[in-house]
Write a structure and sequence with these properties.
Number of helices: 2
Order of helices and strands: EHEEEEHEEEEE
Oligomer: single chain
Shape: globular
Helix content: under 10%
Number of strands: 10
Radius of gyration: 16 Å
Largest sheet: 6 strands, mixed
Structural class: mainly beta
């Protein structure tokens, strides 16, 4: 699921929907085609609920660089409690990916993308988790917030 998604709602709408009070994070601009490795808005609650910009694609704490290993943008629900890559972050750093909808691709002759969204135009709250990563061996390297969505097999037809 979800290799591309849409977040067109305004920052103000997100703050209201997710009941976020004072929020000083830099807003992530709305996009109709968010792809893995792009900056996205996630909702986190370490102390108070906040809207934070993060890189879509989880970088495990042990990674040597952003390109040295996998940076999964989706994590299967049956792996988050057992995978060494996910276990610690999933236990402590839950997140919500707000989305207006997402794209699913299906092969019908040629590959075709379908836009999946709520009929009532409400926002989707997609489960996820996050972690902080810093380039090892570089003194003063900035911390990077990275996140991934949790996915599960389809539970029937969407209408």
């Amino acid at each position: 699921m979800c290799g591309r998604y849409v977040l067109a709602s305004s920052r103000e709408e997100l703050l209201d929907i997710f009941q976020i009070g004072v929020d000083e994070a830099q807003p992530v601009l709305p996009s109709f085609n968010i792809a893995p490795s792009q900056e996205v808005a996630i909702v986190v609650q370490p102390e108070a609920r906040r809207l934070e910009p993060a890189r879509w694609g989880f970088v495990p704490s042990y990674a040597k660089s952003l390109t040295s290993g996998p940076t999964p943008f989706n994590a299967r629900d049956d792996k988050v409690l057992t995978s060494g890559m996910y276990k610690a972050a999933f236990a402590k750093h839950r997140a919500i990916f707000p989305a207006d909808g997402f794209y699913e691709r299906r092969k019908t002759g040629e590959r075709q993308s379908f836009y999946i969204h709520p009929l009532d135009s409400k926002i989707l709250a997609i489960a996820g988790f996050y972690g902080w990563w810093r380039q090892p061996g570089i003194e003063g390297a900035p911390w990077l917030l990275t996140a991934t969505m949790v996915t599960r097999p389809a539970q029937g037809k969407m209408v």
